[in-house]
User: What shape does this take?
Amino acid sequence: MHRSRLLMIGGLALAVGLLVSYSVYNRLRLFSGQGVEPGVTVLVAASDIQLGVKISSDNVRPVTVPQSAVPPNAYTSAREVLGRSVIFPISKGEFLLPSKLASLESGNGLPSLIPTGMRAVSVRVNDVVSVAGFVQPGTRVDVLSTGTRSGGNDSQTTTVLENVAVMAVGKSLDRNSEAQPSPVITLLVSPDDAQKLALVSQEGRIQLSLRNPLDTKKGAIGATRASSLYVGDTPPPTESKPRAKRTIAKATPPANAPYAVEMIRGSKRDETKF
Assistant: This one.
């Protein structure tokens, strides 16, 4: 009898233990399932994509990431990005976003990089003008012009444009390339500045002044004349014509008019003049 009672107690304890274990298992599974987010398939760069490159199927790959990790407007289909040009460099594994790509109608290469209302103007340079080749795509420069004013003989240098973006050096749009000189540099300017740049390229000699990219301050810079470089020299005095002296004719005093004295003596009259 004691044996049967022990078996009953053991079976009951086993059943209770299984029930408790099953309940704990279900609770743990439910708790862990609450932290799992649904995955979203988006496109990332399969390799580094340089500026101006037209995206092909080899440049992108799909990945599945948690929904909270997906940036706004990320592309999910390759059809949305194929054939579009890159306007900002994209690193390997980086999400493809609209802010990094040009519109499909803008084409590829340099034209797709020109913002609305701006112009790309090329100027001829040499090693000195391009700051020994350190002027590269993505850098910013000032444009200086040296020439002689119309009707004058004193040459001067003037800062024509300030804080201008360099778009291309030769045919290269790569911002990560090593410094190398090129005979042509393309600048991004407004239509008004494009006219100024074309004029100074024809009328005078231009020089590029490289800027720190963090220095965006613009200020009115006065022209520097050649005569101001030589402190010891003084400009020759200007010759002034002598003033003509005005001669004031003095009025000649009239001669003393004679006066007469008439004397009457009875019937006789005598007149004496003095």
